[in-house]
Amino acid sequence: MNGSPPILEVKDLQVIKAGSLVLDIPALTIEEGEILSLIGPNGAGKTTLLQTLARLTKPSAGDLFFKGQKASLNHSDLEYRRRVAMVFQEPLLFDTTVFENVASGLKIRGMQRPEIRKIVAENLEQFGISHLLHRSARKISGGEAQRVALARAFATRPEVLLLDEPFSSLDPPTRESLLADLESILRQTKTTTLMATHDRMEALRLSDRIAVMNLGRILQVGPPAEVMNQPLDEFVASFVGVETILPGRVIKKNGGSFLASIMSHEVEAVGEVELGESVVFCIRPENVTLAVHPSKESSSARNVFPGKIVKIIPLGLYHKVQLHCGFPLVAYVTGHSLENLALAEGKEVVASFKATSIHVVRKKGGQEIK
Amino acid sequence: MRRIYKIQILITAIICALLISSWTPVQAQQKNIILATTTSTQDSGLLDVLLPIFEKKTGYFVKTIAVGSGQAMTMGQKGEADVLLVHSPTAEKKFVAEGYGVNRRLVMHNDYIVVGPAGDPAKIKGTKATTDAFKKIASAGALFLSRGDNSGTHSKERDVWKASGINPEGQKWYQQTGLGMGQTLNVASEKNGYTLADRGTYLALKKNLQLNILAEGDAILLNIYHVIEVNPAKWPKVNAPGAKAFADFMVSKETQEIIKTFGVDKFGSPLFFPDAGKKEEELGK
Amino acid sequence: MDLIFEGILKAFYLLITLDPEVMGITLLSLQVSGTATFISLLIGISIGTVVALAEFAGRRFVVSLINTGMGLPPVVVGLFVTIFLWRSGPLGFLGILYTPAAMILAQAVIATPIVMGITLAAIQALPKNLRLQILALGATRLQMVWILIKEAKLPLLAGVMAGFGGVISEVGASIMVGGNIRGYSRVLTTATVMETSRGNFDVAIALGIILLLLAFLINLILTQIQQREKPR
């Protein structure tokens, strides 16, 4: 962004629970107005990170900076907590009306009744639940409850919003609708947001940056395209949806491109490598093309391999095709193509993919290119 | 523990201390007298008549604690009572001899009776000597209910068994209720058994009982009441002037007159016989 | 059978004519048990929430103490309170033996663990993240405790009802520490015992009926409040 300090910054943050290190983040900065998603498996530390940033959990070591000012760990965190809001996976509404729920953050701050009414009305309107004003919180649906929880958090006009998997307990259509509304509200209000999710699509759609976490650490953080297409290591790769991960060794170099031996097949890729180096090829299934008659299709793909379909898994709108062409390979195929090509388990096909679409991970150090 | 929690606990403790202290009686301690007496005395209703008169006259507030004679005297021994009104002469004499009580004065007497089922299986009706009646009950193995609670009545009953030379403990026909007089009479009535009762309680409950008076009038059955002040030398905390005022009241002429007529309108005969000033040995002659 | 019938008749008579002695006894019952319940409410809820929320050494031990206290036999409480309040006892200087204050004390001791235990369970039964959510809304710790208590108000009300029900019907401790003194420390339960032992069954039944009515009425009111809002 610009020259002002990041709104949140973390240095050498560590949280130890029951004797084990559950969070270990040497550095993380969050810019004002950005939406950062945290993705990772269960137990990765996403919740711990969010709660520590909310100052609900006390870190065992490290520093937290809010707008450049160090948040003192011994000092009262009240002021901080009043500038940062958090919403959990369950709505956790109070046993009263929707109005009282959304007003609760304001009542806590000692605001007067008339002004509370105004702000509550605005926020209910923003989330499309004005009609629920006097309804009891016990008598609304799951989606409506989560909207109330979000309205409750927004009503306090937080400078940072922390969301811990807020949509995971909702069914897909509800989730979709809420996600769309939230996205527009976040963009409109330019609220700095950190959101934990285990849905890659949500993260992709909503975020300015994605952070991949595992075992308490951040493995990679960057814009969605970068993380999705250039995973730094195998774990990140598999987590962001790279289906084909192939270890191999560089056998020939050719200027900008090179050949690697993968299970005794030669595969061409692009990048700066050393001869003899161990590398890992990451190939996204969307970049694999299947054909039945090789001679008919001519493409610029240098990597063409005949093989056999091992398994076809229907995934709704498309199909995941697992095949073996000297090495295992995964491709995504639409239902349409499936029919046209009459693909079936056991059928012989020809798979191809561009050298440029392979993401190369060098085994030593794991930094990478493209 | 978080500081806020400690503060919470502290505030609560303070509020409670305030609340309880606001209920502490306003009366000064000197105006209270703890009178230990027996349940049968209280149940007779005599004190309900006498105490208001005393309180009005002297301004003292009498806390009547009605328990068994045994417990009343234990209270006196520990200085937990100021004055005793009991009817257990043997134990009382020991109490005074051991220095726990002073000014033991005769107040009144009534008598015990032996009651039992109309059928009278042990055939004791008309027996002059109570000891003989008890011997008949024992040899017939007829059901006998004892209070078994160290009360005055229980002591008297034990004295009679002793005088009869019989030890009823452990015998199948001898059952101990551990209850008050009224309840023991009820049990005896329900189970068609014999028991020793004070006339007052029997008369009060008569209409609900299926028991008849089968032996009475024997000197041994006299139930003699004394008032004893707890010795302030042993227990400085007792209200000595209050105790004395009460004891004086009990033997005063006006009170004795009231005692004389108490119960007549309700039962046709008085429940107690005033004896202040007399000697214990004179009674029953 | 006539006896019971006569008893019920006498009961109505005493009630309808508002017999002063009976009314006095009833009022005292309410005052004593009401005050004791109020005290137990204050101590029970505040300490109950503290134990539920705080972490400290020996917490498990304290929790089992509270749970044991919930089942304390009232007559045993009466015995120990009496011993403490004797002139020769550690609290004898207070001089409150055989007074309503002593009865309030004993009844408060009986009711407090009950309210405390139920509060403890109620607060612990709240969703685990609720506490964090409240803090995340910017509440001070005190505000947080207060909001949690409000969220648990239904089971807490049940706890208060249980405490009150336990002490208004208690007789053993009340007789021991109160002395059942006429017009002073005589309450419905102690009077019932005395009238029964005197053979005045009609009066005893009347008192019993009043006690039942009282307990029923109070619980009716509290139940109405509780059941009006069914929990989620």
Write structural notes for this entry.
The complex is a heterotrimer of chains A (370), B (285) and C (232). Helices cover 26% and strands 35% of the residues of chain A. Chain A has 370 residues and is an alpha+beta fold. In chain A, the strands form four sheets. In chain A, strands 6-7-8-3-9-10 form a six-stranded mixed sheet, sandwiched between helices. Chain A has a five-stranded antiparallel sheet with strand order 13-12-11-14-20. The longest helix of chain A is centred in the middle third of the chain and has 18 residues, at 172-189. Chain A is globular and about 75 Å long. The model of chain A is unreliable at 365-370 (pLDDT under 50). By secondary structure, chain B is α/β, with parallel strands linked by helices. Chain B has helices spanning 3-22, 39-44, 46-58, 69-77, 89-97, 130-140, 152-164, 181-191, 199-205, 240-251, 253-261, 264-267; strands spanning 32-38, 61-67, 83-86, 101-116, 144-146, 174-176, 194-198, 212-215, 222-230, 273-274. In chain B, helix 7 (152-164) links the parallel strand 5 (144-146) and strand 6 (174-176). Chain B starts with a helix and ends in an 11-residue tail after the last strand. Chain C is 77% helix and 0% strand. The radius of gyration of chain C is 21 Å and the shape is globular. The N and C termini of chain C lie far apart (50 Å). By secondary structure, chain C is an all-alpha fold. In chain C, helix 2 runs parallel beside helix 5 (100-125). The longest helix of chain C is centred in the N-terminal third of the chain and has 34 residues, at 20-53. Chains in contact: A-C, B-C. Chain B binds chain C through residues 1-2, 4-5, 8-9, 11-13, 15-16, 19-20, 23-25, 29, 32, 34, 39, 42-43, 45, 48, 61, 63-66, 78-80, 179-183, 186, 201, 204-205, 208, 235, 237, and chain C through 3, 35, 38-39, 42-43, 46-47, 49-50, 53-56, 86-88, 92, 94-101, 104-105, 108, 141-142, 145, 179-182, 184-185, 194, 196-199, 201.
